[in-house]
Amino acid sequence: MKKAVKKFGSGAKKVSKHLTKYLYERDTIFSTLWVFIFIVALSQIPINFYFLNPLKLAMKDFDFNDLAYSKLGKGKLGSSEDSKFDKNIVIVNIADLDREGLAMLIDKTASYNPKAIGLDVWMEDAREPHKDSLMREVVRRTPNLVLASRFKPSTDPERDEGDYHSNYFKDSTAGTEGYVNFFNEDIATIRIWNPTTKVKIDSVTKIRYPSFAYSLIKLFDSTALEHLPSKKKEIINYTRRTLQYQIVEPDALFTDNVDSAAIRGKIALLGYINIDPNNIDDKKFTPMNEKFYGKAVPDMNGIVVHANIISMVLAKNYIKKLPLWVVWLVAIFIGWLHMSFFIRYYLENHIWFHLVAKIAQLASAIFFTYVGIYLFDRYRIKLDMKLSLIVIVMAVDVIYFYEAWAVWMHRKFGYQTVFKPHHHGHGDEHGGHDSGHEKHDEEVPEEGATKKEEESSH
Amino acid sequence: MKKLTFLILASCFTIAAVAQNNFLLYSFKGNVSVVENNVETKAKVGKPLNSNATIKLTAGAAATLICNEAAMFTLTKPGTYALKNFGDSCKVSSNSVSSNYVKYVWAQMTKSSGAPGSNRKAYMNNVGAVTRSINNIWVDPRLDTVNFSSGDSFPLSWKSYAEAKNFEFFLYSSDNISQPIFKTTVSKLKIPIADFINKLKPGNSYFWTAAIKGEENEELKIFNYVSKEAFAQIEKEMKDQGAAFEAPAEQAYRLAFMLEDAHYLAEAYQYYTKAATLDPANALYRATLMSFKKDYEIK
To answer: Is residue A446 pLDDT above 50, yes or no?
Structure first.
């Protein structure tokens, strides 16, 4: 037993030595710096190469965390405390009811005394007069009803401009409405919710318009909004799919086949629901899509997206997105560790360098993707690991560039580097530089060293 | 110390014995009633039930319940069910995201490689998860659900395990599976959609089955007659996902693949044909079209 522990200990020590031997070398630090210089430089090229890259186009909407929903069981009923059946919300399917039918449905729902009712139907203008009259009357006598409006923001989000379109029946209410649309591209995944939007009316006046979910929460439990981290922009924490909410069909409601406990005191959302995956009417792309890349078929009815937002606010289950500087700091740290490891193999076991580097890249990609998913699943922390993965991928190629650069700097300015042209020889120069790599000579295989010497002499 | 341990254990057992599962009647169809405190009432959607309640189902009825807000199960057979016996149905799978991640990575790394073009079936999700009773007729699982908008020449096909000269084809509306709305006898192992499409209304779902003449086949397949407008929207969504530089033949091939995956088989056939016509020199397009025709008995 003691022997095994000792063996394990020495193994761990060896691995740690591989990782840290060159950690504090100036070459490791500068080559890591070069990786970031390349990343920044490439991102600054004004020419758009996007259009030539179908993979990039397909990945434009890609987020590693979507893997957690599509393949790892996140968001399934009972998979976590957050994904349990939501008792605060009931969704009433409006099916294909016209305005007369909708008026009856609102009336019937209101008779069950929900705390708030949301009608996710955009009614822009007049239709059939008698049906409109019925709807207007129902809207008038249902003070806890939130109607759907629309808001189209200007292309520049900093300008506080946009077009707001009220619901046709809004004038007969006490002004309870909220925009139901999301401010993203039509076929993009809905990830962001804008709780309210400020619009500049003139140089002095600004109006703040609430979203549909925001208005409903205000009616249901206005104290929940006090915990809202931002009134401008929130990442939606999807926790439930359609069947994790109580769905009530209109027929069941009209024929009194619904228990009063299902609606009383809750938020009743009236919207279109169809659980057939091939029916894409009023369906949106969400991170819960079965496909986490190249999403082809939208997966969630709009009303369920609103329900998820409400669930998030009521449970105070917000996603904390780590700021950009943390993303860069993590990427720098990971890049630094990898560079130290790669340089060690590059110099001392070059014959194995490519194999080890590829294995390390694969293992790191798997591990750091997991870290991102784990933080997201367990702590609702969104850490974008894409930059870190790019750094790991680029590190190997940058070593070759850095070697040439360091050697040139050495010749020109006497820059101290472990990549000296004579380094790959028999190592007798090694003791010369003060980084304590005296053991290189023992570890460098003869053939590898000779090969590198030939390469260096070019 | 012993007394304290005994007390803690006794308390744990008492808590475990007293803990009850809470149920919620999520949905039901047919005649379903609930018995609580010896009082029988009509079932209602969203009714909370404790584990002392009993549910009664008559023939053709079904009830879906949620236990402890975390597990869902459905009762479909007629009978009387005491909810206290459904403790096992309240158990929730304990697979964590971490363990699922390890399984997923391993599965992906050990999966054999290939390309969607050369082995399109391996990349599709169009096979249903359910297989039903065995009988003399076998219908390819990819025809389990067919979405259709246009392309009458596409056939619904089947295989027969027994030698037979004639087969009967039955078509039912979704709300009445006792009386077929269309019935015909065919000698081939397929029937073109054109033979019955005029009996159907766009926007509706239907069931179909085929049987050796004189025999019965209870295995019903779904046929969704999608309206032209709804299909145009799907087609547009798919087209919009293409790259700006996509050639017409490439686009046709991509659409065909996506449509087949979404069960729009007749439409997929049209696009596979289009791809092969637009770029006749492309061996992949030709091979895929041949393979598609073979799979779905298109001659």
So the answer is: no
Q: How many whole angstroms separate alpha carbon A176 and alpha carbon A173? A: 6
> One-letter amino acid identity for B241?
Q
Q: What is the pLDDT of residue B297?
A: 85
Using alpha carbons, select from A188, A200, A210, A212 the residue that is nearest to residue A156.
A200
Nearest residue to B210 via CA among B161, B170, B172: B170
Tell me chain B's radius of gyration from C-alpha atoms.
26
On whether the pTM is more than 0.95, the answer is: no
* Nearby residues of A292 by Cβ (< 8 Å), 6 or more positions away: A62, A66, A67, A69, A70, A71
**DSSP secondary structure letter of residue B298:** -
Beta bridge pairs of residue A86: A245
Residue % of chain B over a pLDDT of 70: 85
Domain boundaries, given as residue ranges, for chain A: 2-60+322-457, 76-317
State pLDDT tens for residues A338-380: 999 999 999 988 899 999 999 999 999 999 999 999 999 989 9
* Chain A contact present for B235, CB below 8 A: no
Q: Which of A91, A248, A259 to mutate to test the interface with B (most CBs of B within 10 A)?
A: A259
Tokens of B246: 């996509």
Cβ-nearest to A57 among B47, B234, B243: B243
CA distance B61 to chain A (A): 15
Q: Round to whole Å and give the CA distance between A176 and A118.
A: 10
DSSP annotation of B112 reads P
Tell me the one-letter amino acid at A440: H
> What is the pLDDT of chain A when averaged over all its residues?
84
- Do A190 and A285 contact (CB within 8 A), yes or no? yes
Domains in chain B and their CATH numbers?
20-88 (no CATH), 136-225 (2.60.40), 228-295 (1.25.40)
Residue ranges of B 155-184 with Cβ closer than 8 A to chain A: none
* Interface ipTM > 0.90: no
The rounded mean pLDDT for chain B is 84
Distance CA A320, CA A453 (A): 51
Distances from the Cα of A302 to the Cα of A182, A241, A282, B77, angstroms: 10, 12, 6, 34
How far apart (Å, rounded) are the C-alpha atoms in residues B163 and B266?
28
Pairing type for strands A267-271 and A116-122 reads: parallel
Contact between B99 and A74 (Cβ < 8 Å):
no
Q: Å from B107 to nearest chain A CA?
A: 11
